[in-house]
Amino acid sequence: MRRTRPSTAIGAPAVSLYCAERGGEEIHPGLFQYQSEIHLDAASMTAGLSIVRSVADQPGLAIGDYEMRIDGATLSEGIKAIHSADFDNVKVDEDSANGSDTLSYVVCLSGQPVERLINSEDARALAQLGPFNDFLEELESELLESPKAALSVAVEQQGSAYILVLKNIGSAPILVADPRRDSECRIQVAPIPVSIPGYTDRPLQWTYIELEAASGTEEFEFQLAPAEERRFVSQRWESDAAKAPHIAQGIYSSYPAVAQENGILRIRGMAFSEGLTVDSD
Predict the structure, then answer these.
(1) What is the dihedral of CA 218, 209, 269, 49, to 10 degrees?
(2) Does one domain contain both 53 and 181?
(3) Per the domain annotation, does 1 fall within a domain?
């Protein structure tokens, strides 16, 4: 997996910062299977975050765009973190930097850009960039509290079926692909393994339940206004395993080539709901 991280530029008097983390297959030019981008701009005093799919497939993480205003204190912290990184003197293990799991840094502090390609396991180089990465993580945490145009995924039980719930948690409208037309959009269920003291729990063994098919007359995508949601019923799950305690999780996936339509963000990526624990009958 290849990851691309900070690209930072400082001008006079403007300060800007851009970071991208990418991995997996490049599905369309500039759009990777796993991707998130974060930026900070002093001219507009704003910061933003765009999530396509998190590397860890974090349950409950909404995909789309986040945006917030920043204050002088946050800007000062960012400038301090950039300078503390001392990119000119970062020592890179050239052999490990050629690996598939890398962090790419491009910074410009005095007109001359400096680029560093670092393997994610290059502890020495990453330690030198620690305060800078700490600032990025704090900024991302704050941005996640300010969704602008983002899609959340939830799952509910309905008899022997499940419901995939898609909701716009932002303040702007979004375009969403009909999940019934993509086999990657579905419900996954797994028996809850029995824990045995002294032994590691077995990984969950997932079974997939498809959504009920769409009619031929329905659109391939729809628009969700802020706080609006759409619900999609799955096929019935009637195996013996359904009678035992299990976990259910909803999955949404769509990677269209075009990012916007008439200024409205088109949701691109993959998101997982929080797990729903279902007791036995």
Answers:
(1) 110
(2) no
(3) no
Q: What is the pTM of this model?
A: 0.86
Q: Which of 6, 143, 136, 18 is nearest to 69 (CA)?
A: 143
Distance CA 85, CA 7 (A): 13
- The single-letter code of the amino acid at 126 is L
Give the residue numbers spanning the domain of 87.
6-143
3-class DSSP state of 223: strand
Question: In whole angstroms, what is the distance from residue 52 CA to residue 269 CA?
Answer: 4
CA distance 214 to 230: 13
Are residues 111 and 33 located together in one domain of the fold?
yes
- Over residues 146-182, the pLDDT tens digits come to 999 999 999 999 999 999 999 999 999 999 999 999 9
Contact 97, 119 (CB under 8 A): yes
Instruction: Quick: pLDDT tens for 90-114.
Output: 766 555 444 445 566 655 555 555 6
